[in-house]
Design goal:
Elements (H helix, E strand, L loop, with lengths): L6 E5 L6 H13 L3 E6 L5 E3 L5 E3 L2 E2 L10 E4 L4 H5 L3 H12 L4 E4 L3 H6 L7 E2 L6 H6 L3 E2 L4 E4 L2 E4 L5 H18 L1
Parallel strand pairs: 1-2, 1-6, 2-5, 6-7, 7-11, 8-9
Antiparallel strand pairs: 3-4, 10-11
Length: 178
């Protein structure tokens, strides 16, 4: 359990992509991490695009980035909502400024673009937001997973196994240095 004793923050809002939320959360927990599900309000049930429910534990305003080793942003339609919250953008920037691992998949790159942390990073995503990432300064590539410094990006659900293997590896490397 390579991440035993460490915490990862996961953003939540309505219409997250069910697999892109639950598969990473379960994999992180299997690796020993404590994953906190954080949304606009605490103790609220949110539903994925396919109706799978998830209950948040904390509100964005209640958490501090320094309590976590990493940030996970799921895809789906949730990222378009998430990027509108000042606390989401603040937390995302704080993780980035501390060079902590940040993972995003599919449409989740929208959050990083809105937080203005894409400049000079090589990233992947669903092709649907390629222009958004490039306009935010990223170098976009069509690969199942990309690791560039502290940011791990993935394309879509079929890429989840490689994406999560990479993210857990980056988190584990971070823990050995900090």
């Amino acid at each position: 359990m390579v991440l035993q004793g460490y915490k990862v923050l996961a953003f939540v809002d309505e219409e997250f992509e069910d697999l892109e939320m639950w598969y990473p959360v379960l994999r992180l927990r299997e690796a020993g991490a404590e994953v906190h599900l954080v949304g606009p309000t605490a103790n609220k049930v949110f539903y994925g695009k396919y109706g799978v429910p998830l209950t948040t534990e904390y509100a964005f305003s209640e958490v501090q980035s320094n309590d976590y080793i990493g940030l996970y942003v799921p895809g789906g339609w949730a990222p378009d909502k998430l990027r509108r919250y000042a606390d989401v953008l603040r937390l995302t920037r704080e993780f980035h400024e501390a060079v902590k691992p940040i993972a995003h998949i599919c449409h989740a790159g929208w959050v990083l673009a809105s937080a203005k942390i894409c400049e000079g990073y090589t990233m992947t995503s669903t092709p649907g937001i390629k222009d958004d990432l490039e306009n935010a300064g990223a170098i976009w590539v069509d690969e199942e997973v990309v690791i560039d410094r502290n940011i791990v990006s993935g394309r879509r659900p079929p890429d989840l196994p490689a994406f999560m293997k990479a993210y857990i590896q980056v988190l584990a490397e971070y823990t050995t240095k900090h």
